[in-house]
Structures are given as structure tokens and as C-alpha cells.
Amino acid sequence: MVGKSKAMEAAKEIVIKTEPFVVNFGPAHPSTHGVFRMRMTLDGEVIVDMEPVFGYLHRGIEKLAEERTYTGCIPLTDRMDYLASMSNNFAYVLAVEKLAGIPVPERAEYIRVIMAELQRIASHLIAVGAFLNDCGAFMTPFVYMLREREKILDLFDMVCGQRLTYNYMRVGGVSQDIPDEFIPALKKFLKEMPGWINEYERLLKENEILLARAKGVGILSRELAINISASGPVLRGSGVKWDIRRADPYSIYDRFDFDIPTGTVGDCYDRYRVRIEEMRQSLRILRQAMKGLPPGEARSDVPHLIRPPVGEAYARIEAPKGELGFYLVSDNSIAPYRFHVRAPALINLTALSDMMRGWKIADAIIIFGSIDICMGEVDR
Amino acid sequence: MTLALSGKEIAKQIEKQFPGSVVESTADSLLVKAESLLEIAGYLKSTRGLDFDYLTAITAVDFLDYFEVDYLLTSLRRNHSLLVKTRCYGRENPTLPSVVSLWRGADFQEREIYDLFGISFEGHPNLKRIFLWDGFQGHPLRKDFL
Fold first, then answer.
1. A296-339 residue pLDDT tens
2. Cβ contact (<8 Å) for B130 and A54?
3. A350 within 8 A of A225, measured Cβ to Cβ
4. In chain A, which residue's Cα lies nearest the Cα of B82?
5. CB–CB of B28/B4 below 8 Å?
6. Which residues of A touch B106 (CB under 8 A)?
7. What is the pLDDT along chain B (146 residues), one digit of tens a residue?
8. Is there a contact between B53 and A230 if contact means CB atoms under 8 Å apart?
9. What is the distance between the alpha carbons of residues A239 and B38, in angstroms, rounded to a whole number?
10. Predicted ipTM?
């Protein structure tokens, strides 16, 4: 007996000495959702510090745009957040219209809103599915959500013949009117989708593993969220009721009735909940927009080459990932003098190291997944 | 609707606090001197009634004679916005004060401007290239690059 207690005493005195070490996470890692690299300083399994490294997908879009006509820049915007190309198109054409003072027909406004809201659902489906993938629900929820996203892609395919880079919106409207079969297909989708969302909720809302892994993890406080200029579900997950569609209505968003879901503590679970609720709100907007869709032209008469007057304009929208803004400067030529993108995904990453510090590697993947980024937009 | 504050109105207020710091003001923007940028930004952030707690975006434009750096500020509490501009001259080593101490959202955006325009931000905690690699020659978004 004496010997045992002596051994226990000795064991108490052993202090495990650890030393921080650096691990490169990414750029090519399935959990980084693209080519994102994190230089993690770890103490055992715990993250002491994290430094994000960008630039693996930098294509110089802002520079390329300076040599293209205003219409020629639209395909470039598709290639930024390629999971939400319609939203990118939308923000860009709004900026050009603001700069050049081009009117948009009523019907085109409605079509744009329908596309933007469908795109929000599609993007959130990927965000939520990939987030659950990161949580360890390997592929099942992700494939469920891809199934519904497919239906949205079919709708987009109908209007523009593309499934990823739509290049659908034009300065002064949209490239072509919606075909006759679109509205019945949209009706069918709107009828089915609430049931699908309920299905995810049945599977996941009270799921013990999800709750254990996402609740209270990666908290972004309200003050910090505002200070780092977070936007979109990341900002609303932290309890800030700020949605550009409501705060600064663009296009015709002041005509629709919808709620702004917010979180309370700003953890990963809140951000996930906000996205699920936003899909339901998008469905509400879609129903109203479909009902209100007026007949008429889908595109106003715009000259082939647009020469906006000298000046600058900033237009912003509530994209699925946050506030997407385009800052354009014109020198009265056919190409923008300066084309700047306020990329929500890049700015939302500012607080990532704060959110990760003190958590383990497995949590870091969830925290990163809950922000929902698209490297095409981060690096541009 | 976010109210875009008139640069002229704000210019009057700022001139009272920091005489000689405003260069020009129009209905929708405010051009301030680079030396007084940081104190004006602090004033805009902390003054009651202005409360610019949210830095929407920073961007730079190369006009060859000078670089213009634009700060888009928003107040989430009061739902109004303001466009503050400043200029920095010289192409060798243009420098501006960093606003990271006020809004951390400026962190990556100032690094982006440093990377692509070559404008240094004094007081930035981690000023290095963000998209391009160290050792890259030149700053691509300058008009005289290529």
C-alpha cells in the first residue's frame, strides 16, 4: 500500500511539458472549402494562434475588369462567389445602373428578386450541408441538400442555360425574359421546399451530436462582430438585426414582407439556425414576388457601350454570405476606371483567429465551416 | 433606408473640432487631410449622433497624380452612412495612418491595398502582402503597372 501511494505522489509531481508547434492546415484540404491555408500554432491539440494565408485563387479580377466594357465585366462577377453567381451579377449591375442612371423595368426587378432569393436558398443549402459535413455527419445531409439545390439549378438552367456561372443579369434588366415553363416549375418548387426544410429540421434541429459540437463553440460576440465589419448570417448570428434588404432596401425589397432571423449568443449553432430560417424567409419573398410579377419588358433600352459620367458609385446587396458591394469609378470611358469588390467572405474571416483560439482542431473545422466562405470571392 | 449624410454638414462639425483638416466637401463625400485622418475617424466613431461603429469598406483608386483612399462608414445604430476620402501623394512610399485600432474590419482591407497599390498603413499590426507572394515586383492595381 505504501508503495502505491508513493507512486501516486510521484505521478502528481510530473508536469507534462508541452511546446507550441506550427501546423499548416491546407491549402488543399477537404475541410478548407477551397484553397485556404491556416498556419495554426498548436499546444497539443489546442489552438494557440492561427494566421490565415490567402491568395491561392487570386486571379486579379479587379485588374482584369479595368480592361473590359461594363457589360463584359458581368462574367467576371460570376467567377467570384461561384456558389451565388446571381447575387454577384445583381450587385454589379445595380452599381452600374447607379453610376450611369439607367432605369430598370418593373418586370426585370421582380425577376431579379426571384433569382436572388433562389440563389440565397441554393447557397445556404451548400453552406449548411458543408457545415454538417464538417461536424462529422459524413455526406448524408450534404447530399440531401444537394438534391434540393439541383432543383434550383434546373430553374436557373431554364432561364439562362447555365448551371453555375449564370451571366444572366444585364445592365438595365436581365438578358432574356423567363420562359413559359419557369413559373409552373417555380410553383412546384415552392410547394415542395418547406417540406424539405422540415425534413432537415427533424433530422438536425435537436440532434444531440450537432448540439454538442456546435452549441457554445466559436462564439463571436456582438461587439466584435460589428467591429470587424462582419455581415450576413455571421453578423446576424451574433444578434445584430442588420439586413441590407431591410436596412437599406435596394431594387424592390421594400415591397416584401419578411422577418430577419437573428441568433442570441453568436456560436456556430446560431449561425446554422439563422441560415435555416433565412431559407424559409426567402421562400416567403419568392411567393410574394411570384404573385406580383407584372407583364412587360425584361430589359430597358441600353446602348451597346455604356459610358457613365465621371464619378463613383457604391451599390450593395445582401448576398447569401453578407454585404456584397461594388465600388465603381468612371472616367467616362467604356471600361470602369476602378472596379472594387467589397467581398463579405474575406471580411468575415477577420475574426476567425479570435473565434478559434482556445478550441481544439476538430472544433476549428466547425468554426471555419460555420462562417461559410467561397475562396473565389475571398481571393478574387 | 440608410441615410447618406451630407459631407458639407459633417465638414462644418469637423472643422469646428479640427480646424483646417477638411480639404473639400460635397453633398455625398468628404475629403480630409491624410495627417488628420485618424483623429477625424476617431471623432466620427465616438461622437454621439454620428456613431459610425461599422466600417463598410476601404478602397483605393490610383489617379496617377495621387492615390485616393475611400472609407465607407456606416452607423448600424442610426442607419446612416458617410463616404470619407483622403489623398496621399508620391509614388515611392505613399503612407497613411491605419484605422485598425478603431475598426478591426480594416485589417485585411488595408493589407489588400498595401499589396495591390503599395500604400503603407502606419500602425497596422501585421502589414504584409495578402494575395501575392513576398518578393512580387510591383503593385498590380497601379495604373502604371504593365
1. 888 888 888 888 999 889 999 999 999 999 999 999 899 999 99
2. yes
3. no
4. A314
5. yes
6. 229
7. 777 777 777 777 877 888 777 788 787 888 888 888 888 888 888 888 788 889 999 999 998 889 999 999 998 888 888 889 998 888 888 899 999 998 988 999 999 999 999 899 988 888 888 899 888 888 998 888 87
8. no
9. 29
10. 0.89
CA distance A295 to A275: 32
Record: contact B108-A58, CB cut-off 8 A? no
> B2 vs A248: CB contact, 8 Å cut-off?
yes
Domain A55-379: state its class.
mainly alpha
User: Smallest Cα–Cα separation from A321: which of A363, A372, A265, A378?
Assistant: A372
Q: Which amino acid is at A300?
A: S
CA distance A42 to A12: 25
Instruction: Kindly compute the dihedral angle of the four CA atoms of residues A264, A117, A380, A36, in this order, to the nearest 10 degrees.
Output: 50
Residues 6+ apart with CB under 8 A from A208: none
DSSP three-state, residue A163? coil
Instruction: Show residues of chain A in contact with B108, CB under 8 Å.
Output: 54, 346-347, 349-350
C-alpha cell at A105: 423595368
- List the one residue out of A214, A269, A265 whose CA is nearest residue A240: A265
Contacts of A373 in chain B (CB under 8 A): none
List residues bridging with B59 in a β-sheet.
Answer: B70
Q: Where are the alpha helices (DSSP H) in B18-105?
A: 37-46
Angle at CA A89, nearest 5°, toward A277 and A195? 25
> What does the alpha-carbon distance between residue A257 and residue B46 come to, in Å, rounded to a whole number?
34
Tell the burial category of A12 from Cβ atoms under 10 Å away from its Cβ (0-12, 13-18, 19+).
exposed
Select the residue of A63, A323, A337 nearest B56 (Cβ to Cβ). A323
